[in-house]
Amino acid sequence: MPIYSSRRKRNQAYYSGVLLHIDSNMHMKAQEIFRVIEIGKTACLAHCSVGQLAPLVFLSALFVLFSFFAPPTPSSLPSDPTTNLAMYASRLYIVLVALLATLVAADSLHDSQWSRRAHKAIARSKPAEVAVERSTKPNRRLVRRRSCKAPSNSTSSTIKSVASITATGATQSQTQAETTSTSTSTSTSAKSTSTGTSGGGGGGALSLAALFPEGTPGTSWTTSPKSDSALPLSDSTLNPTRLIKALAHTYMSAPDGKQAMRATYPEGSYTFTHTPQGGLSFYAPGPNSLDMTTAKTLTFGYSVFFEEGFDFNMGGKLPGLYGGNDADVAIGCSGGRRSTECYSVRLMWRTNGMGEIYSYLPDYEVDGFAANKGVCDIPPMSECNPTYGASVGRGAFVFPTGQWTTVSQRVKLNDPGQANGEMQLWVNGKSVIDVSGIILRDSAAGRHRGIQMQTFFGGSEPEWASPKTQSSYFSDFSVAILETL
């Protein structure tokens, strides 16, 4: 019920009681005045603003003043002065009643108009939004959309830094189809964007092209079932060394049925130096048919599946390439250890699944390696610190949960004494980060050594720990030599 309605009823009752105390003639006039005011007020409520009440008040006042000061006809003049005084007193009383009624009308109208305008303002400040979550389940189709906004298209750009480093960053917004077999990822970042697609529903890699974005030369291998010459996904293919035995890397079916290697992160686990330990850790040179140490330029691709509802917390590490002057030195570039004699180029997830390249390169503060400072400026966001690895292109893409994402990295060694090394990342077949003009080795002894097959939560502090026991799955491991030394 409107606010003014209850006030009107109370005031009418009050004025009706008062009017009973005046003579019948004046009573009729007062009731007529009140009725005129109420009619005008009702009409104004439907069609007028508060400022438009002024004519009503003005006309009411004229009516009252005319009624009060109009000279009485001779027939109506009382012969008794006392009666004449009483008549004018009654009229004065009617004036007060009419003015009070007008004020009540104005007050009620103001409340009503304010209430309507306030609700409109609130409605304007909170645009309608229907937020629904998307899932690969057919019976749970959700869409996030905002009223009065057209969907944005994805664009791309390349930005060149002062250190002659180029990068193309991209963020992805996930648009899953109702079926569980395909999905398309698109998103934007402040500085650069690109597009990608994600394969799900047991498909793993979208195609061999997503694993080998630079082509499939004769010197290559893959465990992807999409290849007619696929190698088995097993230790016999990867040839793991330097395992942390407490961390099992189990070969099993992923949630969608695809053959994969599972990594489990117990609740509270982070890095490998704390209990409980989680993830997996080993180094893999791959099959004997391909010697990575002979390569100048390598590509390494795989597919990763984070289980539905995976909680990324603050971040964690994913597999990538590593190298160095010899097999023992090569494993020294991680865990807060940095050297001019080794490198590692892994991937990392951050909060909400934001992806990036996580690299340990020779320190740019060391003489002769200043070019490596350029990785600190790669869009959409990069961070460098003197102890740990560099976060390169953070947010250039996003890892979804409950479906496969195929990533492939290319790492080119620099010529000794020159800043012409390169690293590039494709996500689902689309280039999202491309960096050139860097230094990965300080001499001809520097070589690619293999796959740093590590994944864990961390960060070196407890707040990085996995908030619950959860798993990820890896498949479609693929390596190709594009250029030899």
UniProtKB/TrEMBL annotation:
Statement: the UniProt record of this protein carries the keyword Plastid: no
Name of the protein this chain belongs to: Polysaccharide lyase family 14 protein
Region described as Disordered: 125-235
Compositional bias per record (Polar residues), positions renumbered to this chain: 150-161, 217-227
Biased composition (Basic residues): 137-148
Stretches that traverse the bilayer: 44-70, 90-110
Keyword Protein biosynthesis: no
Domain Polysaccharide lyase: 256-477
Keywords from the named record: Lyase, Membrane, Transmembrane, Transmembrane helix
Positions with biased composition (Low complexity): 163-196
Species assigned in the record: Mycena venus
One Pfam family here: Polysacc_lyase_14
Higher taxonomy: Eukaryota, Fungi, Dikarya, Basidiomycota, Agaricomycotina
GO MF assignments: lyase activity
